[in-house]
Protein: SFXN4 protein
Amino acid sequence: LFLQFAFHSYTTVFTLLNGNGTAKAEEYSLREKQIYYSLGAISYAACIGALPFVFMNRYTLKSPLTQLVVRKLLPAPLLGLMSAFTAAVSRSPEFEHGIEVMDRNGNVVGVSQKAGEKAVRETAVSRGVLFGTTFFLPALLMYFVERAKLGKTPRVLASMRILATTSALAGMIPVSFSMYPQCGAIKRADLEPEIVSSTEETELFYNRGI
Structure:
């Protein structure tokens, strides 16, 4: 539970620091709202991530199939899903209040909730792909390594697992960041009526963040 909490805390802080800064605090502290949302999302994600292991240990489920599902197959998709969830919740003010959309010359045309929703959705998907794949590939590799008995000692297996995870993370970071451009595009027809009527541009742009 602690490791899950620490992991999601780090990724959520990174997401907050690299989001779109259009929304400003007026009648309330936007930062406080983001912190409350983020703490709730981190706590929920940590509990969901740790739940399968707690359930398995609580009911002493030690069968090979249970071990395979809980320890090998389930953590990666669950971590990817929870990473996407925390990214979406921590940046929810962006689609609640909207983000700035600009024309090709960089002139701000308006503030759009639909563009904010698209930016947050893209970021959440890329974050889920990043961590889901990063932990799935090493788990799959280590499964075959263990079956082939290539690692003779627990220390060798641990070293191979660390190396595989580090390599997967190094390879997936540029892939996930390049899934969607940081300067995203959205069709004018998909935006709010007030923005549609204020420009003749067929396509507008926004800062997606990382």
